[in-house]
Design brief:
Blueprint (H helix, E strand, L loop, with lengths): L2 E9 L22 H10 L5 E4 L3 H11 L13 E2 L16 H7 L20 H18 L4 E6 L1 H12 L3 H4 L9 E9 L2 E11 L14
Parallel strand pairs: 1-4, 2-3, 2-4
Antiparallel strand pairs: 1-5, 5-6
Helix pairs in contact: 1-2, 4-5
Length: about 220
């Protein structure tokens, strides 16, 4: 027998005060654009298990999406908070103005540094992958055969793609993950083994006129 578990990963809504690097700082997101949340809600399955990270911006985003879902289709329970799905901890870089940070460092495409570099007092992107992987495996097992909506972070979703596609961490950093975008990953359990299938990455279902600005971190 084969079974499929469908993950619907959503990056949190934009952070208004993003002049400084925030990482795991608990900052708020801007959830005022109902057109975006209505479009995202229309893409999601009913009866899904909902997850967020432990940071407020993902909880706020999940609330904004579910507010656009018809009452009879809304999740019956509040989303489960999964601390392992928090953004990369950027240690002493958190709170540093982005412009100042990039002036001090040799530019690195796509992220704050190469995947192996550990932020002082924080994590590397490699560390983030090692944190996300066991949680993703555990929840895939726990909710096998279900739809799972996970509202998380750009780094977390890139880490998921590195795990699912068995990519080198630096290659996974090349994915664009915009605020409120949907990334679909299906876990297939078959007699021949377990496999991941990627349905879409960075899907933005809202109208072009809607604000979809994205700042990583």
């Amino acid at each position: 027998m084969s079974s499929e578990t469908h993950w619907w990963w959503i990056r949190h809504a934009p952070v208004p005060d993003n002049a400084c690097i925030y990482g795991q700082r608990d900052v708020d997101s801007d959830c005022t654009n109902e057109d975006v949340f209505r479009a995202v809600a229309a893409e999601l399955p009913k009866g899904a298990v909902w997850l967020t990270s432990n940071l407020s911006r993902t909880v706020q985003t999940a609330d904004a999406i579910t507010a656009q879902i018809a009452e009879r289709k809304r999740p019956k329970q509040a989303p489960l908070k999964v601390p392992e799905f928090a953004e990369q901890h950027l240690g002493e870089w958190q709170g540093v103005p982005r412009e100042e940070f990039y002036k001090m460092r040799k530019p690195v495409p796509f992220w704050f540094g190469p995947a192996h570099e550990r932020a002082p007092g924080g994590e590397s992107f490699n560390d983030l992958i090692e944190r996300v992987k066991p949680a993703m495996e555990r929840l895939t097992q726990e909710y096998a055969g279900c739809d799972i909506v996970a509202v998380a972070h750009g780094g977390t979703i890139k880490a998921m793609l590195a795990i699912a596609l068995e990519l080198s961490p630096d290659r996974a950093l090349a994915f664009s993950i915009d605020n409120c975008s949907i990334t679909r990953a299906d876990h297939l359990r078959t007699p021949d083994g377990d496999f991941w299938r990627i349905g879409t990455v960075n899907h933005r279902p809202w109208p072009r006129c809607a604000d979809g600005a994205s700042v990583h971190g």
